[in-house]
Amino acid sequence: MEHYERVGPPADEALTYLMSMRQALGITRIADITGLDRVGIPVVQATRPFSLSNAVAQGKGASLARAAISAILESAEGFFAERIEYFDVIHGSAKSLEIPSGRYETWLREPTLADWRDKDTAWVSAENLLGGKCDFVPLELVHTAYLVPPSPCDGIFTPTTTGLAAALDETDAITHGILECVERDAIARALQTHGFLQHQRIDPATIDDARVLALLGELARKDMIVGLWLAPSPVGLPVIWCHLMESNPRETALLHLPADGSAAAFDPAAAAVQAIREAAQARLAAISGARDDMTRASYPRYPDWQLIEAHRQLITGGRKDVSFARQRAYRAAGGQTLRGSLLARLEESGINAVYLIRLNTSPWNRLSVVRMVIPQLYPLVE
Q1: Cβ(284)–Cβ(291) under 8 Å?
Q2: How far apart are CA 256 and CA 244, in angstroms?
Q3: Which parts of the sequence belong to the YcaO domain (predicted)?
């Protein structure tokens, strides 16, 4: 299998560098919360109290160091995307800037403004990696300065963090951002597909990857049940959606409701491992109670036990129509870089715009933060 491993300096070197900039980023606390749950997958939280989006960022990984790197990078993404004063902004309407009709319609807020193309808003220049042409992307799809009241230029498009990525290597950041766009699109499509959870479940008996089997075995020993679904993507990359629950009775369960995570990767095994780790991270977000975007509405004091049992049955029983062993890894063609091969795959699937916006990370120029916007892929409303 050709697993995509994030590139850049060794974990210890990367963590040392990121820790040196944490105070300037406004990060006041970095906490290992792994021990709050029985799962054991390393999860770290980074707290940035004056964030203009989520104050608490989370990271997960194969080791505590990698989880900490992930958490700090996620917090850094928000920090740099909030600095609107660093963007080169152009004001105008979609019509006056000759934005092609249909380019951003998928990303409009509900209810849609019928005359949105005539309204002045803010735009930033972006490089289309499919051809190199420069076009305009709405600033609202790039920044994360979610203010109350909102900026006069906001209110047309769906705000999202999809495609926002940070790394100590630009190619790595771009690849990570594109994969996130592919993942969110596939999950958005799955949510709109009637009967998806009943028909796209992966049969555990067909899983033939040692890493995935070892992880599932460890979770089973810790009284966890795991459901994996294949979310079909028009891009053709494997996207795995994981639902994670405890098999313990309600009296001893730490968290009754399921937690979910998803990932896109170059092969199904890597996607499955990453999706399971993200589900474990979601469990700890709820258990810790620290995430400011998770409210009592998500985890009520008096849960619907019938609904919880139905979800448990969905994971443990029912149809398992998808063979994991038949899912193919996507391999770079001879002589192509992984990024080049990924762009070729996007273009082959009918996508004609993959926009790259480089965020200003001054004075930490070693860090690369990008926003990838692929208008033809669906947003996942957060």
Answers
A1: no
A2: 10
A3: 59-382
* Angular region, 104: left φ>0, alpha ψ -120 to 50, beta rest: alpha
Q: pLDDT (tens digit, 9 = 90+) per residue, 137-148?
A: 999 999 999 998
Q: Is 204 exposed, middle or buried (0-12, 13-18, 19+ CB in 10 A)?
A: middle
> Tokens 């951003």, residue?
104
* Measured distance CA(357)–CA(173) in Å, rounded: 11
Contact between 325 and 203 (Cβ < 8 Å): no
- Residue 221 φ then ψ, to 5°: -65, -20
Compute CA 289 distance to the chain's CA centroid, rounded to the nearest angstrom.
20
User: Which tens digit of pLDDT belongs to each residue from 312-361?
Assistant: 999 998 889 999 999 988 776 655 666 778 999 999 999 999 999 999 99
Q: Give alpha helix (H) positions in the chain.
A: 11-20, 22-25, 64-82, 170-191, 196-199, 210-221, 268-288, 305-316, 338-348
Residue 7 tokens read as 């590139």
Cis peptide bond prior to 232, omega within 30° of 0: no
Task: Give the distance from CA 304 to its chain's centroid.
Answer: 28
Q: What is the DSSP letter of 251?
A: T
Place of tokens 């994969």: 179
> What Cα–Cα distance (Å) separates residue 359 from each residue in 80, 144, 329, 381?
7, 12, 32, 23
Collect all residues with Cβ–Cβ distance below 8 Å to 89 and sequence separation of at least 6: 122, 123, 124, 139
